[in-house]
Amino acid sequence: EKNIVEVKNLKKYFPIKSGVLQRTTGYVRAVDGVSFSIKKGQTFGLVGESGCGKTTIGRSILRLTEPTSGEININGVDIMKVKKKDLRPLRPKMQMIFQDPFSSLDPRMPVGEIIGEAVKEHNLVPKSEYRDYVLSIMKDCGLRPYYIDRYPHEFSGGQRQRICIARALALNPDVIIADEPVSALDVSIQAQIINLMKDLQEKRKLTYLFISHDLSVVEHISDVVGVMYLGTMMENGPKESIFKNPLHPYTQALFSAVPIADPDVKMNRILLQGDIPSPSNPPSGCKFHTRCSKCMDICKTEVPTLQEYEPGHCVACHLYNKKKTENK
Ligand code: SF4
Fold it and tell me: Which stretches make up the ABC transporter domain (predicted)?
């Protein structure tokens, strides 16, 4: 399958302004040179603690936040080269689902209009077929036909998230970026929404970037997983190999903090020392070195690059570069 999303060396630095004159005194490096790709029909799960830059990546790909630099290619379109005013016709192809289904729906609009508004705006179906089209999308998302004239406040959190999914789906997108789409929902409802997303993906060959801090959710839905720390991708690869054999000391610490269902995986709890450093003044060399129990001298000065360690499984850590050289 071809890559639908290709991100290369993406950076987003937010200026820090201070003083009366609001001079820029520094930058928060929210995303600091991140590269990855997503194949058609696959889910890329992006994990990491809050503040690691995963939401900024999602928003930058859609240019809801203007990236500082880098390359973003979505289904053959070089997104960074498109002028802001020319983004509008591309919007249906790149949809986002947000964490909070309560605030992302207009309370004054009936469900049918919420789902169909952008369909109308972009003339995606003829007027005469419009209502049937909305009804068919609602059916696919498990929403009953008579909901079409009801208002968001009449629905539960899970149903509202179904409405948000239907709104995205109605535009027939190439890629859906889902930012913590189930974290505001009860655990029992989370599974229903995840399963709905998986079903729709199978039927329509959808491509997802799934952003979450919840590892069990990510394990359930992803094909490929990327682990972020302080704006940097520390490790990525096929889900199975990331969960069975996490290589990066940060990934190991992150994973050891949650119970993993697989009895074959034995992991000792690794406690992370200290706090996450400030992204405006990240540590030199490996950004994780201030908290890493395996830190070596080289880690403090040299930035480890993301390198393939086993097929498809890449890690940015000097431990593995060293092993590679020793083996030679
Ligand atoms: Fe730890 Fe060094 Fe690897 Fe960074 S590069 S994770 S400090 S061992």
Answer: 5-255
Kindly state if the Cβ of 144 falls inside 6 Å of ligand 1.
Answer: no
Q: Which of 298, 302, 318 to mutate to test the pocket of ligand 1 (most atoms within 8 A of CB)?
A: 318
What is the per-residue pLDDT for 266? 53
Q: Determine whether the shortest distance from the Cβ of 292 to ligand 1 is under 6 A.
A: yes
**CATH number 2.60.40.10 is the correct assignment for the domain at 3-327:** no
State the Cα–Cα distance between residues 41 and 208, nearest whole angstrom.
8
> For a pocket test of ligand 1, which of 302, 319, 321 has the largest count of ligand atoms closer than 8 A to its C-beta?
319
Q: What is the mean pLDDT of residues 82-88?
A: 91
Q: Quote the ligand 1 centre to 289 CA distance (angstroms).
A: 6
pLDDT digits (tens, 9 = 90+) for 219-278: 999 999 999 999 999 999 999 999 999 999 999 999 887 665 555 555 556 767 778 888
Tokens of 158: 């899970």
Q: Letter for the amino acid at 205?
A: K
In this prediction, does ipTM exceed 0.95? yes
Q: Indicate the pairing of strand 23-39 with strand 3-18.
A: antiparallel
Atom of ligand 1 at shortest range from CA of 248 = 6
State the pTM of this model: 0.92
Please report the beta strands in 247-325, taking only residues with DSSP state E, as ranges in sequence order: 307-310, 313-315
